[in-house]
């Protein structure tokens, strides 16, 4: 099993550009989530999904969209990138509460 | 006030020392998680517990629900234990993964 995979590993964007961070898992987990990690702060939940077709907002959803058309994939879309979205983004899936994290995407918005 | 507080923020130890990292929380929880973030950035789940104590190798995690407190212990510490240790709590309700994270404890073990 590959576990949770994320692409790209690193991305530089200009303010106003849009992009999609990809996340996939091959463990057939129903629950998936996106977090951002900023210096001096704990991981914060952006959006989550409890199954295909079902998504909901977390603590910091503004500026991000998600969709869940399949169990495996949970992409995160930045609609119009802002410097405040410079961060490291982690995707995770969960089985009975145990979290499995992807390797992260480091995003720099100029 | 943060809902999950960890102490200490930074910890330096000599190889072989016994290490304790503490986590206090202020919300009702379904379970508490201990995670390890390697210097390269990857995050690994170490423990999920809702009561008592769990042990895996040299790592021991305990939780006191009444006191809303958990500890992570590392026995016979080794330089490869150097990482950031993160405490997170889950109040699942109908959703199993909505976690609230502490800011982490950065551990450095010197040879």
User: What is the mean predicted local confidence, pLDDT of chain A?
Assistant: 94
Structural class of chain B: mainly beta
Biggest interface and residues each: A-B, 25 and 27 residues
Q: What's the end-to-end separation of chain A, in Å?
A: 36 Å
Mean pLDDT of chain B: 91
The number of E-state strands of chain B comes to 11
The main sheet of chain B comes to: 6 strands, mixed
Helix content of chain B: under 10%
Order of helices and strands of chain A: EEEEEEEEEEE
Rg of chain A, rounded, reads 13 Å
> Unreliable runs of chain B, pLDDT <50, ≥5 residues?
none
Work out the radius of gyration of chain B.
13 Å
pLDDT < 50 runs, ≥5 residues of chain A: none
**Global morphology of chain A:** globular
Strand content of chain B: over 45%
Secondary structural class of chain A: mainly beta
Assembly context of the chains: heterodimer
N-to-C terminal Cα separation of chain B, in Å? 37 Å
**Order of SSEs of chain B, N→C?**
EEEEEEEEEEE
Structure description:
The complex is a heterodimer of chains A (about 110) and B (about 110). With about 110 residues, chain A is mostly beta strands. Helices cover about 0% and strands about 55% of the residues of chain A. Chain A has no helices and eleven strands. Chain A is globular, with a radius of gyration of 13 Å. Chain B has strands spanning about 5, 10-15, 20-25, 30-35, 45-50, 50-55, 60-65, 70-75, 85-90, 100, 105-110. In chain B, about 0% of the residues lie in helices and about 60% in strands. Chain B is globular, with a radius of gyration of 13 Å. The interface of A and B includes residues 94, 99 and 104 of A.
Q: Summarize this, please?
A:
With 110 residues, chain A is mostly beta strands. Chain A has no helices and 11 strands. Chain A is globular and about 40 Å long.
């Amino acid at each position: 099993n590959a576990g949770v995979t994320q692409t790209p590993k690193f991305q530089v964007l200009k303010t106003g550009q849009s992009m999609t961070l990809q996340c996939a898992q091959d463990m057939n987990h129903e629950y998936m989530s996106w977090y951002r990690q900023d210096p001096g702060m704990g991981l914060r939940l952006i959006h989550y999904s409890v199954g295909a077709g079902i998504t909901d907002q977390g603590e910091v959803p503004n500026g991000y969209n998600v969709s869940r058309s399949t169990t495996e994939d949970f992409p995160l879309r930045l609609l119009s990138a802002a410097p405040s979205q410079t961060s490291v983004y982690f995707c995770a899936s969960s089985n009975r509460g145990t979290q499995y994290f992807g390797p992260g995407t480091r995003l720099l918005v100029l | 006030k943060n809902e999950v507080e960890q102490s200490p923020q930074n910890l330096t130890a000599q190889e072989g020392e016994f290490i304790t990292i503490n986590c206090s929380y202020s919300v009702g929880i379904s379970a508490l998680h201990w995670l390890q973030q390697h210097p390269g950035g990857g995050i690994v789940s170490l423990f999920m517990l809702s009561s008592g104590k769990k042990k895996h190798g040299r790592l021991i995690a305990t939780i006191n629900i009444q006191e809303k407190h958990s500890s992570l212990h590392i026995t016979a510490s080794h330089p490869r234990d150097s990482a950031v240790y993160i405490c997170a709590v889950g109040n699942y309700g109908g959703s199993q993964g909505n976690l609230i994270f502490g800011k982490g404890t950065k551990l450095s073990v010197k040879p």
